[in-house]
Specification:
Blueprint lengths: L11 H10 L2 E8 L2 E8 L1 E5 L2 E9 L14 E12 L12 E16 L2 H15 L1 H6 L5 H8 L2 E16 L6 H12 L4 H12 L6
Length: 207
């Protein structure tokens, strides 16, 4: 993606933390008829210095067939975003814009339909997103659990390239950054307020 230098984030730890905090992502793969996309939760982890993404799709969703070891897929993690009014700028001749944060991960991988491997992954997934269901799952009948697992296919993607863009008014003056943070923080829109928090976390608007 296009990233002006003042919006580029090179810190790998920051990118990984962002992906883990915003796991609902967009997976895009190439097919013979064009791009194919699926919205889904994806777990990101680092193993021996390699960023690995894992998820699963319904077996009826053909996307798992497009994740290959010799063809790149793209995974987009997106965080909070907010409209920025030019009224917050010191210079009258300014235009509106949008602040946001995103991480693009390119990589190649493979699908796994094996029941044992899927069960292990599902344990990790439910432990992260719903610990109460993680405790409930083993109490369900084996017949039901096996039937549900047979309806999904897991996948792993090893990253070959990571692009991180935080567009957070880095090119504006400190006063303008403070104006943006104050305006967004007071918004009833939780996404806008989250952008203000992200700006403060990045040290923007400080004297």
């Amino acid at each position: 993606m296009y990233i002006p230098e003042f919006n580029r984030v090179e810190d790998h730890a920051v990118a990984l933390a962002f992906m883990q905090a915003n796991p609902f992502a967009l997976l895009i793969s190439t097919t013979e008829t064009g791009p194919f996309a699926t919205h889904l939760p994806i777990l990101a982890r680092e193993i021996a210095g390699v960023l690995q993404l894992r998820g699963h799709v319904a077996r009826a969703n053909p996307h798992w067939k497009f994740i290959k070891t010799d063809q790149e897929s793209l995974v987009i993690f997106h965080g909070p975003h907010a409209y920025i009014s030019p009224s917050l700028y010191e210079l009258r001749e300014s235009v509106p814009t949008w602040n946001y944060a995103a991480v693009h991960v390119y990589g190649m991988g493979s699908a796994f339909p094996e029941e044992a491997r899927l069960n292990q992954f599902l344990q990790e997934l439910t432990a992260q997103f719903d610990s109460s269901y993680a405790a409930q799952w083993p109490s369900l009948s084996e017949q039901y659990r096996r039937r549900m697992v047979q309806h999904i296919v897991g996948f792993e993607i090893n990253a070959t390239r990571v692009e991180t863009k935080f567009k957070l008014s880095q090119n504006r003056t400190k006063t303008e950054q403070q104006n943006v943070i104050k305006s967004l923080a007071s918004s009833a829109d939780s996404a806008a307020a989250a952008v203000a928090t992200l700006m403060k976390d990045r040290g923007l608007g400080l004297p």
